[in-house]
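Moderator note: this is an archived Q&A kept for reference. The question asked for a predicted structure of one protein chain; the sequence and the answer are reproduced below.
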Amino acid sequence: MKKSVIAIGIIAILGYVGSSWYTGNVIKNNIDKKIEQITQKIDNDQDGFSITIEYSDYRQSIFSTNLHLTVKVIPKNFSWLIEDTKTLFNDDITIHHGPFPIIALSEGKFTPQMAWIEYAMSEALSPELWQLAGNQPFITAKLGMSYQENLTIKLANKALNLVDSDSNNNSEILSFIDGSLEVSDGDINIEVNKHLSDLHAQVNIDKFIYKNYKNFSKPQVTLQKFNLSAYPNSDKTGIHYNINADKIALGSHNHYIEPRITFDNLKYQGDILHKTGVIIPNHHTEMGKMTLEFNTSSEPVPDDQKIIINNLMVDQENIFNPTNNTVDGLLKADAESVLLGLPNVGSVSLDLSYQNIPVTMLSNNFDYTDFDDKQTSLNSQISLNKFHFKNTIGEVNANAFVALSGIRSRLERFIININNIDSLKLNVDAPFNVLAYFSAQLKTPNEEALTPEQIEKENLSIKSSIAENNFIKIPLFTFEKNNIEGVYSEVDYAKDKQEATLNGQILPIQDFLQKVFGDN
C-alpha cells in the first residue's frame, strides 16, 4: 500500500514537472508572436505613438523563465527625433510556468494557469526611485494568464515625493517626467478575458499631484481620494464603472492661456455598451462643485474671475437599436447655482430626449462595416421636454418637439426643410427683464449687486439688437405677453392636420406654412 502511495506521488510530481516544462516551452515558442500581436494592437488603436517591445537574456528552467524586457515608445509625428524616444520599461522579469504557479496560488488562483509574471522594480534600474520609495521597489507587479488567455493584472506602487528641489539628486527622473510628482501608495487590480468583454477592475489612490516645468506654479493633474471600479453590467452587453473622488483637477498650457477644470466631490456611474462596434455612453454624474479657470498669467486666478457650478447632476441614458443603428435616449442636467465671477447668475435645468437618432451623432468610433445603407429613410424625434433658467428677477422656460423623416444621410448632416418636418411644437417664455439682468451680470462679473440703471441699459440693448437684426420680423416669435415684454413663442404644427397654432392664432395649414416658411 505504501509503495502504491509513493508511486502515485512520484508520478504526480513527474507529471507536474513535465507539465511545467511543457508550458515553459509553449511560452518560449509563442513569445515572439504574442509580442507582435501586442505591438500591432497598440499601434492600430491610436495615432500618437509607436511601441517597441524587445527581450534578451532568455533563461528557461523547469518552473520559471527569466528574461530582460525593454519597452519603448516613439511619437509618430516626431519619430525622426531620437531624443523623443521614451523607455517605459527596462528591467528583468520572472515568468512562473503553469499549471499551478506558486505565485498564482498565493493570489487565490486555484484554477490552472498558464503563466504568472512577477516583477519588482530593481534598485539597479533606478537608484533614485529605490531610495525615494524607502529603499524598496517603487513598483511591484503580478500578471497572470490562464490557458484560456484570460488576464489578471496586479500593480502596486509605493508613496513618492519628487519635487524640483530634488533635481540635483534625481535629474534623470525629473527629465523623464518633465516636472514633479507626488503620489501616495496605490494599487490597480484588473481581470479581463481575451476579448476584453468581461472586465473587472479596481483602482485606488489617495493622492496624485503632477506638475510640469511649463507651469510649475499649478499642478497639471491632481487626484485626491480617487477610486475606480469596473465590472460587466447585468446583461453582459457592456462594462459598468464607478468613479469617486474628493477632487480631480486637470490643467493644460499653451502660449496664450492656461485653462483648468476642477471637480470636487465627484460621483460618476456609467456604462460603456459594446455592440457591433458601437460604444454608447450611459452615465449618472453628481458633483459638489465644478470650477473653470482661464489663466493668462503666472498669478493664481482670483475667485471673482472663475466660473463655478454648484451641485451639478447629469444623467444620460441610451439604448442602441442594432436593426437600423439608431439610438433612443435622454439627457438631463441640473445645476443649483452658476457663479460667473462674484454674482450667482441663477439655476439651470435641462431635460432632453430623442428616438431613432443615427448612432453616428453620439459615437465617433462607429464601425460602418455592418451598416452602409445611407440612403434608407429614417424617422427621428427630438424633444426638449424642459429648459428652465431662474435668477433673482424671474424665470426663462422653453420646451420643443420635432419629428423628422427623410433620407438618413441628409438627416445626419441636419439638411432639413419643411418636407422633412412631420411635426413641430415650440413654447418659449423669456421676459426681457430676466434676460437683461443676466446680461448685466455677464458684463459686470465683479459686482454682486446691480443698479436699476444697469439693468435698464441692458434691457434697451436687447430690444435694439432684436430690431437691428430683423429678429422682430420672424413670425415664430412675439415680443409681448400679458403686458410683459420679452421673447415668446407658441407653435403647434403637424403635417397631417388641417390647422396649426401660431402664437394664439389658429391658421389653415397652408397659411401657416406661407407665414412661417414662406416659399419653402
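Archived answer notes: Confidence is low (pLDDT under 50) at residues 1-16, 78-82, 366-371.
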